[in-house]
Amino acid sequence: MRALIEKKVLFFGGKGGVGKTTSASAMALAASKAGKRVLLVSTDPAHSTSDIFERAIGPEPVALLPNLHGLEIDGDYESKRYVTEVKERIRNIFGHHIQKEASKQIDLAASMPGAEEMALFDRIGGLVRGEDDRFDLIIFDTAPTGHTLRLIRMPELMEAWIRALSRSRQAMLGIEQDDKTDPVMLSLSGRLDHLREFRARLLSPRVCAFILVLVAERLPIEETARAIDQLDDAGVTIGGLVINRVLPETSPDPFLRSRHEQELVYLDEIDRRFKSRARVRVPQLPSDVHGVPTLERLAELLLTEKALSS
Amino acid sequence: MSLRDNIRDFFHGAAYGQYERELRLRAAELNDLFLLLCYMEVVGLPNPATLYLLDIYPYLLEQFHLWHKRMGMDKSPLGSLPCC
After folding, report:
1. Using a CB-CB distance cutoff of 8 angstroms, which residues of chain A are in contact with residue B60?
2. What's the structural domain count of chain B?
3. A293-308 pLDDT, tens digit each
4. Does residue A186 belong to the interface with chain B, where contact is any CB pair within 8 Å?
5. In this structure, are residues B57 and A106 in contact, taking their beta carbons and an 8 Å threshold?
6. d(CA A123, CA A141)
7. SS3 A199
8. Which of A77, A137, A284, B82 could form a disulfide with A59, with the two C-beta atoms 3.0–4.6 Å apart?
9. Contact at 8 Å (CB) between A192 and A202?
10. What are the helix (H) ranges across chain A?
């Protein structure tokens, strides 16, 4: 897992409640200690990064520790910001009348269902493209798997859509006028360039990797298997698996011993089914992870080669 | 304008006028398709790219105006797309 901190973008995904936020935060802390300037981004609308670091984090990067910033993306905030930016841009180009009419339309479009998700996607795209050069590594703590996989597929879909639009526009311009100076065409090509770059970075094994977090139980294993299939299908590199909350092997307590025996069956299954992937086992800690000291312990565990079982 | 120019324009029009009309019609049709793709949600179809089209809306206002005129409607037929 140590090699992962050399990448530019890491995604942490997995079923709800398996410890994505904890793993992502621990990885962010580990990377920041290794000298990387890290931005930890939470995309889950139910943000819990602020709970782990025990301080408020907002929709703009906040310094948490040396070399480590946090950011909680908020769809509503992003769509408002996006709209303000667009209005600012057209202010200098158009007359008052058109501006007024266009403003009405822009507000209407921004209130459509899906606009927030779209603005969120645009923000993530900007971060993945390396828009913010203050950071070497961006770690995304994502919402549960299904939502994230859709997000990963989105650049491709949007690209196809915008390409269709610019073809349609081009066909018309081909007849009437030049397409190098058409502002609509220019705007569409700009979008297209950004989407292409976003997708290229998402699919580059040098830049980006996806880490799946799971616990040794039936449902998380199945979900991980599905996620791996879909990520492979999308062409995204899988950085490895974090097997979280593994019970201690020797316990005098009969209840824990029996739980552990049950768990061994699943741990074997994980080793068998995902043998080609890098895996890290993180033991169940005696207390909850919150606050920096416990996180530090976890960070060490994630990076030590000993924890690697392959 | 000399007689020579007039004669040249006459033959030019006789030869190409028909094509030009066709091309203009075709361009208008393509333009309508483009408008529809941009304003899909106005007619109730979900448009995944809505947010990315906000910058170009002001440019489209004029084309929208031309469209409803061409379709023989003096005023905008769509409540959510006010024009004239």
Report:
1. 184
2. 1
3. 888 888 888 877 544 4
4. no
5. yes
6. 14
7. helix
8. A77
9. no
10. 20-33, 49-53, 75-91, 96-110, 115-128, 145-176, 183-203, 218-234, 254-273, 292-303
- Whole-angstrom Cα distance, residue A64 to residue A83? 29
Q: Which of B23, B51, B59 to mutate to test the interface with A (most CBs of A within 10 A)?
A: B51
Q: What number of CA atoms fall less than 13 Å from residue A258's CA on the CB side?
A: 2
Q: Quick: pLDDT tens for A84-120.
A: 988 888 887 888 888 888 888 888 878 877 888 888 8
Q: Is residue B79 part of a domain?
A: no
Is residue B47 situated within a structural domain? yes
Q: Does A164 touch chain B (CB under 8 A)?
A: yes
Sequence-distant (6+) residues with CB within 8 A of A247 are A256, A259, A260, A263, A283, A284
Is B30 among the domain residues?
A: yes
Dihedral sign from CA coordinates of B12, B15, B18, B22: negative
- For residues A22-34, b (16+ Cβ closer than 10 Å) or e, as one string? bbbbbbbbbbbbe
In the block, tokens 């530090």 appear at A296
Residue B82 lies in a domain: no
Q: What is the pTM of this model?
A: 0.85
Domain membership of residue B56 as a residue range: 3-70
